[in-house]
Specification:
Blueprint lengths: L2 E4 L4 E4 L7 E6 L10 H19 L3 E6 L6 H10 L3 H18 L15 H13 L3 E3 L5 E3 L15 H7 L14 E6 L14 E3 L3 H11 L3 E7 L3 H15 L9 E7 L2 E3 L2 E2 L10 H5 L4 H10 L6 E3 L1 H18 L14 H11 L4 H18 L2 H12 L8 H5 L27 H16 L3 H13 L2 E6 L2 E6 L1
Parallel strand pairs: 3-4, 3-9, 9-10, 11-13
Antiparallel strand pairs: 1-2, 5-6, 6-7, 7-8, 11-12, 14-15
Helix pairs in contact: 4-6, 4-7, 6-7, 9-10, 10-12, 11-12, 12-13, 15-16
The structure holds zinc ion.
């Protein structure tokens, strides 16, 4: 039985889907005005594994991850770039798809864009107005009135007073309470705007998720996920909107389980642009194999902070190399798993304990040790099959060991060739092949001094050679 930590109740609970056998899950996705950073990568990878696992457990999953394509930051960036808004967002949606594909993230079932749900947002705002939960402020914006929603603060576990004291909130005359938030913004000159009962304007940020989730998953669904930074105010506001507007949610949570992944830190510091320790996914993929980055993310429990450092990434590369090395002499494919097998049972127990991927990965190492010790083919098949539920170890081992980057997820059409970048640290594959050919030629000519010199040159460059009856194989060590 799967147990997961529910932010709303602050404890681990048995997961019971609303409709037996089905899971509906919504995750807040990217605001597309820039490249994805490691925090985005973590959200995508974590919930990719959540949905892979639920599917592996035989559940019928509908997974929605939205795209915020209208927002203050987008408008600002488009103006700075002198670029039409839709071109800017199209460019970064494409970049996000490329990053996701490189990281082995499967496509969600739906990737709705906020601008496609304006009528649904307006309908919810109308319902809120009707119920006395929204008001038109003197500046023309439509705001949510948090004081009129009794459950406000329940996701954060705080009262309105705590929230006032603890959060930095902007005090404006237009708001009845500083925690009130904008549902509909009156248009400013030159900004994109849609007609509405409250005049030309555009949606505030929070309302889009209530509109998209209720349209695609219904007004009451199973799991809502996102990064921890969204817990307040974004998710608190989603609750206020969806439970405030929809009668069927009166007194009931609109989402049964709230899941939040932890923060990403860099060298034990908060990741931020001002600290200069801010990395985009593509900057990281120029230095590390994408599967190493995925492995690094999954090796930590999703609720723990994830600390990025070169040291940790190098360590992840070495660890993943150990797993692939165990598979290198076994041409095996992932297959159905016998969950009664002791390793498989431990793996499942770990995953069912609030997606404890860190413990699940430890089981993969135990299996790799067994493959190394006994050469057991069934153990190699099991290793590959269990790893598949995490989206790991599915490349040909030599592709990984020789540093060949392969996209294993058929994904959006990738227009950019050469992405993700080929990660080759040290000698290029071509140079290595050339040196090996030279070494064979030297040996044929009985020039053993030269052959040894080449072997040493390769060893110094951390290239391990193995002479087999079929020829010489090399890998990066
Ligand atoms: Zn959201």
């Amino acid at each position: 039985m799967l147990k997961l930590y529910n932010t709303l109740t602050r404890d681990k609970q048995e997961f019971r889907p609303i409709v037996p056998g089905q899971v509906r899950i919504y995750v807040c996705g990217m605001t597309v005005y820039d490249y994805c950073h490691l925090g985005h990568a973590r959200v995508m990878v974590v919930f990719d594994v959540v949905t892979r696992w639920l599917r592996a457990a035989g559940l019928d999953v509908t997974y929605v991850r939205n795209i915020t394509d209208i927002d203050d930051k987008i408008i600002k960036r488009a103006a700075e770039n002198k670029e039409p808004l839709d071109e800017l967002t199209a460019r970064f949606i494409q970049a996000m798809n490329e990053d996701a594909a490189a990281l082995g993230v499967l496509k969600p079932d739906f990737e709705p864009r906020a601008t496609e749900y304006i009528p649904q947002m307006q309908e919810i705002i109308r319902l809120l107005e009707q119920k006395g939960l929204a008001y038109v402020a003197p500046d023309g914006d439509v705001n949510y009135s948090v004081r009129d929603f009794p459950g406000y603060g329940k996701l954060s576990g705080k009262s309105l007073e705590d929230l006032h004291a603890g959060e930095r909130v902007e005090v404006t005359l237009a708001k009845r309470d500083p925690l009130d938030f904008v549902l509909w913004k009156r248009a400013k000159p030159g900004e994109p705007a849609w007609p509405s009962p409250w005049g030309q304007g555009r949606p505030g940020w929070h309302i889009e998720c209530s509109a998209m989730s209720s349209t695609l998953l219904g007004r009451h669904f199973d799991i809502h996920g996102g990064g921890q930074d969204l817990q307040f105010p974004h998710h608190e506001n989603e609750i206020a909107q969806s439970e405030g507007a929809f009668d069927e949610n009166k007194g009931n949570p609109f989402v049964n389980y709230w899941m939040h992944n932890g923060f990403v830190r860099v060298d034990d510091e908060k990741m931020s642009k001002s600290l200069g320790n801010f990395f985009t996914v593509r900057e990281i993929l120029a230095r590390y194999d994408a599967e190493v980055v995925r492995f690094f993310i999954l090796r930590a429990h999703y609720r723990s902070p994830l600390n990025y450092s070169d040291h940790h990434l190098d360590d992840a590369r070495q660890a993943l190399t150990r797993l692939y090395t165990a598979l290198k002499d076994h041409a095996v494919a992932a297959g159905p798993v016998d969950w009664n097998e002791p390793h498989a049972a431990r793996f499942r127990e770990a995953m069912e304990d609030d997606f404890n991927t860190s413990e699940a990965v430890a089981v993969l190492f135990d299996l790799a040790n067994e493959v190394n010790r006994s050469g057991s083919r069934p153990a190699a098949v099991l290793l590959k099959s269990l790893a598949a539920t995490l989206g790991l170890l599915q490349r040909k081992p030599m592709d990984f060991l020789q540093g060949r980057q392969v996209i294993v997820v058929p994904h959006a059409q990738l227009h950019v060739t050469g992405y993700p970048p080929k990660v080759e640290i040290g000698l290029s594959s071509e140079k290595i092949d050339q040196l090996i050919a030279d070494r064979i030629a030297a040996r044929k000519a009985k020039n053993y001094v030269e052959a040894d010199r080449i072997r040493k040159e390769l060893l110094d460059a951390s290239i391990a050679l193995e002479d087999t009856p079929k020829g010489t194989i090399w890998r990066r060590s």
